[in-house]
Specification:
By secondary structure, the chain is of the alpha+beta class. It is built from 14 helices and 67 strands. Helices cover about 15% and strands about 35% of the residues. The strands form 17 sheets. It has a 5-stranded parallel beta sheet with strand order 2-1-3-4-7, with helices on both faces. Strands 51, 52, 53, 54 and 55 form a 5-stranded antiparallel beta sheet that branches. Strands 56, 57, 58, 59 and 60 form a 5-stranded antiparallel beta sheet that branches. Strand 13 and strand 14 form a beta hairpin. The protein is globular and about 95 Å long. About 0% of the residues have low confidence.
Length: about 1000
């Protein structure tokens, strides 16, 4: 043990200079500042070699002295640190001389995976820890994940997630629970409360004598109190974000409390973030949850596990009645009958001397009805721990199919309680050691039942005759080692079935032809082959498959495209054993071995798999009409090239245009112009008029008309006039299309001749707010300077032009029309006086690479810009200076940004195929990273009422995302949480503040 009274340092920081020279000093500074008292220089004394080393030629002697005189050790874990001899030596010293509990870890890169079974890290998957730690820990040590914090805005105590991760480490060193370790903001608030009370007493005594001074003090006091409330609001908002995955219900309520107490920008962002998270709530159950299923009306959820089966109200998440089948053993299968009156439970016997079971119960009372029996005697299995029965109702509820551990499959009549048919699946283990039950399922039309056994083959039998239908289908490799088998599940319409193998792969199959659909799905953690089979479930419309994984996540897959839908659902801390969709498809239930069942709102995820509008070719532009009834889209003609049928014929960097027309492949801009004539495999153009510019009915999501463009080249930019009577479109200019076209919206025809501006590509077009002026900009291919041209929108007379860069990608008018903003290929934003057409001040610099999108806030005070560097910047328009920190999150270029009509939210679409929503004041992402598009998102736009944001991309689809004003979100959060904060929760998280019912309407 170390004598703490003689230590020089509270923390020794060990890290790789190559990997973490940015993170280490920020972490050290955070530990210095967090929970620092007014009379302290530092809250914790931290040794970091670059700042703390003395001028000593013997480097190790100095480090050794620091190690001997430190209370705690924090390792910044990364693959580089794991390979560093210096880090290894420091870790070896601590392992030899100190206790496990004083060793903390902050992951900055790579992976850390703990194996509960082995009681050690999983060294086959852990890449961030030095091997010298192998076998030291008896339990998983405290560690935090900082791998997400790589950029400067994130590496700050002002970033709530970073602050809470640092607080986790600091709390361990301080010897306090994190909840008890007040953040600096909360501490400041408490001091403010004390000051307020002291000042109030003093003012009472001195009011008459120093009235003028007292008045000034009161104002200062009120300002201080408000600052304190804002600080507390930010701190509670950070707590909400911290527990968003682990306790979504409390996270929602804390976000509401933060917003109601102080209304800080971070609190508003937290409210939106809480609403955007898929997690609805969790149900805590003693022991592992092995199975979940919804009732046919979706109002009840049944869970199965080691303590039997329980039924829960899905709205309140409270148990209905007592435990069912509690003495029978481990319930591994649960299912309601089609009419919801009967409950099926099946699983593993409680002891080795008893047979596995399948039971039917009266769902309302929990009374046992009957015990279905397999057609053959179930022999006592040689590997006892896995002996269980699988079971499923037929679609009409009259029959059951049972799979027993001796590889038998039985069709059982519920009414007569008799066996109708008995068949079997082969045992692939030559020594007959494994008692692997086959997975069973009924075809939705009831004509056949199917099973897949340990040989990996799917077999079908006729329900009436019991005869096998067709040959066995080899879906997965046979497995002689696993104690669990593969699984099978049908889509609700019976057109497709899915199988999950013991190797972790998932396959889709055509139920009619029994041919595979696409390649196997991968990405899931390999199942635990001793006790965990795959967990699969189709959504009610059959378009989405949910799959649980050993890593504690649930993944959703688009059945048609076989692409992952959005990001995995995370929150469980142990392997997921079972998944089930509610009948309406909007809610997903999952059970896991962490002792919880979770409910997820997957409506947003399902929306990712359902494009609202499908275009014939890649989309580059979209615009809502001012009344919100019409959406205009501009894009490619849909002609493809090559045997692979790619819509993108040649690669480009996002700023050039690549397209096919009549078999000719062309690339313009992006630094070069290339043309090829009819590459092998070119498909000739489709017949009929080109569909490069289309008007859509927003309500019906149907095409109204395709405007008759003169050729088939791409439309790259669109803009409606303020009155909605006119639409301007621009794109690739040819001999047929020599400029920007201004259309009469009502008559669907050009108003006059095109605006001939001499551009090869018209990349940007915008109407002035009064509709009298239209501006065009883009790229020339000759040596003449590229101009931003002003036109009279009525008679198409050229009014003037300005030079804003070699290539101009975007233009935007301020709401009052007095300023025009332009973005060019040199990363520069310029502001222009529209009256004089003179530049206002110097260019706004900060971007690296082209600026591809600009938009003014509704009040005109801020300008948002983004482009190649993936950073969204806000500028204060009156001062032409940066407005706060940039918004970072996209992993590729940002092609489009748009303000919500209320100015509080910004939407962005980028080259990483994501659509994101940001809280402007807090500079924080408040939505999930919507990854519904399969290729770059080229355009985003809010509907005029602000309720919807539309996105269009190179995958030729338009998607709509619901948005809500802040005033409407709290009600939805309270409805989801189904409760309010208790007074004890309030005092724990908001000390010193009078209790408020955050869900007063309940």
């Amino acid at each position: 043990m170390v004598d703490e009274s003689k230590t020089l340092y509270d923390v020794f920081l060990s890290y790789s200079h190559a990997a973490d020279q940015l993170v280490a000093p920020v972490l050290r500074r955070g530990l210095h500042q967090l929970a620092r008292r007014w009379n302290q220089i530092w809250a914790l004394r931290v040794f970091r070699d670059k700042e703390s080393l003395a001028a000593n030629p013997d480097l190790w002697e100095t480090i050794d002295k620091a190690l001997r005189n430190s209370r705690y050790f924090i390792l910044l874990a990364s693959p580089e640190a794991a390979a560093s001899p210096w880090v290894t030596r420091e870790v070896e010293y601590w392992r030899t001389e100190r206790e496990q509990g004083t060793f903390l870890i902050a992951l900055t890169d790579g992976e850390i995976v703990w194996n509960d079974t082995a009681g050690d890290f999983d060294w086959t998957r852990t890449t961030a820890l030095p091997p010298t730690l192998r076998g030291w820990f008896s339990a998983e040590p405290l560690w935090v994940d900082l791998s997400w914090a790589r950029d400067e805005p994130e590496l700050s105590l002002r970033h709530s997630r970073f602050r809470f991760d640092i607080a986790t480490l600091a709390a361990a060193v301080h010897g306090k629970a994190k909840e008890e370790l007040d953040s600096e903001d909360v501490r400041r608030y408490r001091i403010t409360t004390w000051v307020r009370r002291g000042v109030a007493v003093a003012l009472t005594v001195l009011l008459v004598a120093v009235l003028g001074l007292g008045t000034r003090t009161i104002l200062q006091q009120q300002e201080t109190i408000e600052l304190g409330r804002q600080a507390l609001s930010r701190a509670v908002a950070a707590k909400s974000e911290q527990i968003g995955d682990s306790d979504p219900e409390l996270s929602r309520l804390l976000a509401l409390a933060a917003w109601r107490v102080g209304g800080a920008a971070e609190a508003e962002a937290a409210v939106y973030q809480a609403a955007a998270r898929a997690g609805v709530g969790r149900i805590a159950i003693d022991g592992s949850v092995e199975a979940v299923a919804f009732s046919p009306d979706g109002k009840r959820l049944v869970t199965g596990g080691r303590d039997g089966a329980r039924v829960w109200d899905t709205a309140t998440r409270r148990q209905i009645g007592g435990t069912i089948a509690g003495s029978q053993g481990v319930v591994q299968t649960v299912q309601f009958s089609p009419e919801g009156k009967t409950l099926l439970t099946a699983g593993q016997a409680p002891s080795s001397g008893e047979e596995p079971f399948a039971l039917l119960w009266e769902a309302g009372t929990g009374d046992q009805l009957v015990r279905p029996a397999p057609g053959a005697q179930v022999a006592s299995p040689r590997l006892i721990g896995n002996a269980s029965i699988s079971a499923a109702f037929s679609p009409d509820g009259k029959n059951l199919v049972l799979g027993d551990p001796d590889h038998g499959v039985t069709l059982w009549d519920v009414t007569t309680e008799k066996v109708l048919h008995s068949v079997s699946t082969p045992q692939v283990d030559p020594f007959d050691r494994n008692a692997v039950r086959p997975s069973v399922a009924f075809h939705p039309n009831g004509s056949q039942f199917a099973a897949i056994g340990s040989d990996g083959a799917v077999r079908f039998w006729d329900t009436v005759s019991g005869s096998q239908v067709g040959d066995p289908l080899p879906a997965h490799p046979g497995d002689t080692a696993s104690l669990v088998g593969p699984v099978i599940v049908f889509s609700p319409d019976g057109a497709v079935f899915a199988t999950g193998g013991t190797d972790g792969t998932i396959r889709f199959w055509d139920a009619t032809t029994r041919q595979p659909i696409g390649a196997p799905l991968t990405g899931h953690t390999r199942p635990d082959r001793t006790s965990l089979a795959q967990s699969l479930a189709f959504s009610s419309d059959g378009r989405t498959l949910a799959a649980g994984s050993e890593d504690g996540t649930v993944r959703l897959w688009d059945v048609r495209t076989r692409n992952l839908v959005g990001t995995p659902l995370s929150g469980h801390t142990r392997p997921v054993t079972s998944v089930a969709f509610s009948p309406d498809g909007r809610t997903l239930a999952s059970g896991a071995r962490d002792g919880t069942a979770r409910l997820w709102n997957v409506a947003g995820h399902l929306q990712l798999a359902r494009p609202a509008i499908e275009h014939s070719g890649m989309l580059y532009a979209l615009a809502f009409s001012p009344d919100g009834k019409t959406l205009a889209t501009g894009g490619d003609n849909g002609e493809t090239v090559g045997n692979h049928g790619s819509m993108e014929a040649c690669s480009h960097n996002g700023w050039g245009v690549c397209y096919v027309d009549g078999g000719t492949v062309a690339m313009i801009g992006g630094g070069q112009t290339v043309q090829f004539y009819r590459p092998p495999g070119t498909r000739l153009p489709p017949s009929g008029p080109p569909r490069t510019l289309v008007l859509w009915d927003v309500a019906r999501r149907e095409a109204v008309t395709a405007l008759p463009t003169a050729d088939r080249t791409p439309v790259l930019t669109l803009a409606f006039s303020q009155d909605g009577k006119t639409l301007a479109s621009g794109g690739v200019q040819t001999d047929e299309r020599k400029g920007t076209i201004v259309w009469d919206h009502a008559n669907r025809a050009p108003r006059n001749d095109p605006l001939t501006d001499g551009l090869a590509l018209t990349r940007a077009v915008a109407f002035s707010p009064d509709g009298q002026v239209v501006v065009t900009a883009g790229l020339r291919l000759d040596s003449k300077p590229t101009e931003v041209t002003f036109w009279n929108s009525g008679n198409h007379v050229r009014l003037g032009a300005v030079e804003a860069g070699k290539s101009v990608y975007t233009v935007a008018f301020s709401p009052d029309g007095s300023i025009l903003a332009t973005g060019n290929d040199q990363g520069e934003v310029r502001l222009w006086d529209t009256g004089t057409r003179q530049q206002i001040g110097e260019g706004l610099k900060g971007h690296i690479g082209p600026v591809g999108t600009l938009t003014f806030s509704p009040d005109g005070k801020q300008l948002a810009s983004a482009g190649e560097d993936g950073v969204i910047r806000l500028w204060d328009v009156p001062t032409a200076q940066p407005a706060g920190e940039p918004m970072v999150g996209h992993s590729g270029a940002v092609y489009s940004v748009a303000f919500h009509p209320d100015g509080r939210t910004l939407a962005s679409g980028g080259g990483d195929a994501s659509v994101r929503l940001w809280n402007v004041k807090a500079r924080k992402q408040v939505s999930a990273s919507h990854l519904g598009h399969r290729q770059p998102v080229r355009a985003v736009a809010f509907s005029p009422d602000g309720k919807t944001v539309a996105s269009a991309g190179e995958d030729a689809v338009v998607r709509f995302w619901e948005t809500s004003a802040i005033d409407h979100v709290p009600e939805a959060l309270c409805q989801t949480a189904q409760r309010t904060l208790t007074q004890s929760e309030w005092q724990r998280h908001l000390p010193g503040v009078a209790f408020t019912d955050v869900c007063q309407a309940r």
